[in-house]
Amino acid sequence: MKPQYEPVIDQHDTWLAVNPVQGCPKDCSYCYLKDLGLTLAKPAELATPADTLTQLLASRYYHPRLILALYTCTDALATPRTRAHLIALLDVLGDSPVRNPVCLITKCAVTDDVVACIRRNQAKGLRVIVYLSYSGLGPDIERGIDHGALKDNFPRLHAADIPVIHYWRPALPQNSTSAVIESVMDLASRYARCSVAVGTKVKPTAKDQITALWPQLADPALDPQAADSVWPRTTWDWLRDRPRRYDTHPVYQTNCCALAYVLGEPDHGGIWNSPTCLNANHCPPEQRNRCAAPVPSQQPVTPAQISERLRVIGLTDLPHSYDRRTRTLVLSDPVPLRDQHNLAQVLRISVRAPQAPGERYWSGRLAGGTPLIVDAS
Question: Global pTM?
Answer without folding.
Answer: 0.95
